[in-house]
C-alpha cells in the first residue's frame, strides 16, 4: 500500500485532467516499486454514484487534496484517504452538530487537533466505503472508551503524520503497511 504525496508550489484547484495524470503517475510508480507489470494503460471510471476506480486493473485508489498538497493512496484492496489543511473553521459547532457523543467528548478534551483528526478519519472511512459524509456522520464513531479507534468492522483507520499544517488519515483492510512517498514533478 503506497501513499503518494505531490506538493504544488502554491495552492490551486486541480483540474480533472491534472488529477487523472497524477493518479496515473502514482499508479505507474506503484507498479514500478512493486515490480508489477501493467498489461495496458488503465482507464479511470467515474460512476454516477460511488468512488472513481480503475477499469479492469485490480488496483484501488483514493484521492484527496487540500491547500498545496495532493495525495493518492493505491493498493490491491479497497482504500480511503483524506487530507486536510488546518484552516479557520467553527470546529466546535461542527463537532456539536455532526459528531457522536463520544466524539464530542473527545473534541472537548483534545481541542482543535482532536477535531481535525476525527474529521480526516471519518472522511477516509466513508471514502473506503464509497459513500459520502452526508450519508451519516453519526452512524459510526471514531472514538471508543475515550481513544481514537484503530479499526471499525475490520477496516483499519490510521492517522498519517504530516507537517504541522496538515492532517491525514487512511482506511484500508490493514493487511499491508502504508508507505508514504513523494510524487515527482514529471507526473503532471
Distance between the termini: 22 Å
SSE topology string:
EHEEEEEHHEEEEEE
Strand order of the largest sheet: 4-5-1-12
Low-confidence stretches: none
Structure in words:
With 188 residues, this protein is α+β, with helices and mostly antiparallel strands. Helices cover 30% and strands 28% of the residues. The chain has three helices and twelve strands. The protein has helices at residues 16-34, 91-98, 101-129, and strands at 2-7, 44-45, 53-54, 60-66, 69-75, 79-85, 143-144, 147-148, 151-152, 155-159, 166-172, 179-182. Helix 2 crosses helix 3 (101-129).
Characteristic terms for this protein:
single chain; 188 residues; alpha+beta; 4-stranded mixed beta sheet; 4-stranded antiparallel beta sheet; 3 helices; globular
